[in-house]
From TrEMBL:
UniProt-listed InterPro entries: Phage_term_ssu_P27
Record protein name field: Phage terminase small subunit P27 family
Organism placement in taxonomy: Bacteria, Pseudomonadati, Pseudomonadota, Alphaproteobacteria, Rhodospirillales
Superkingdom in the source lineage: Bacteria
Key words of the record: Plasmid
Region spans: Disordered: 1-40
Length: 164
């Protein structure tokens, strides 16, 4: 599977934009922060302003990015919920099966005791994998961020030919 295309906005910020490889008819959208949709989970609405603020500072967020931003926020919320579930103990009503924070529990089978991973561990791993993918798409991972060199807000880039 080929690597996904890097957004033109990220290419511009990184200084790697080449006019010969640019789609001249690409839609130009105004930067802006979309509002969280009403159907988003409470946890996703809670993390929305922080993530949207980071993306707005980077200059890569538009109103058209609302569905992708929703997916990013919901995935982050899934990860937080899975970690919260892992931090709770699990009991079968009488006995404690797994203490809070334990990654495994012991079951008894016909061949004796067996150590098993809690289902929440798989939920955390899956949400973490999906979150990494969404963060990379928005340029929010360290590797993706290292390719972007944007001027800080309010700071002007120096023009080396200004004196001429």
């Amino acid at each position: 599977m080929p690597r996904p295309r890097k957004p033109t906005a990220l290419k511009e910020l990184a200084g790697t934009l080449q006019p010969c490889r640019t789609n001249e008819r690409e839609p130009r959208l105004q930067p802006g922060v979309p509002l969280p949709p009403p159907h988003a989970s409470a946890m996703a609405r809670k993390v929305w302003p922080g993530i949207a603020g980071m993306l707005e500072e980077m200059g890569v967020l538009t109103a058209a990015d609302a569905p992708a931003l929703e997916a990013l926020c919901e995935t982050y919320a899934d990860l937080l919920r899975a970690r919260q579930a892992l931090d709770r103990g699990v009991s079968d009503g009488e006995d404690l099966i797994a203490a809070a924070g334990d990654l495994t529990y012991v079951t008894e089978g016909k061949n004796g005791k067996m150590l098993r991973a809690r289902p929440e561990v798989a939920m955390v791993a899956d949400a973490d994998r999906r979150l990494c993918m969404w963060l990379a798409r928005f340029g929010l991972t360290p590797a993706d961020r290292s390719r972007v060199s944007a001027a800080a807000s309010g700071e002007q880039e120096e023009d080396e030919y200004e004196g001429f």
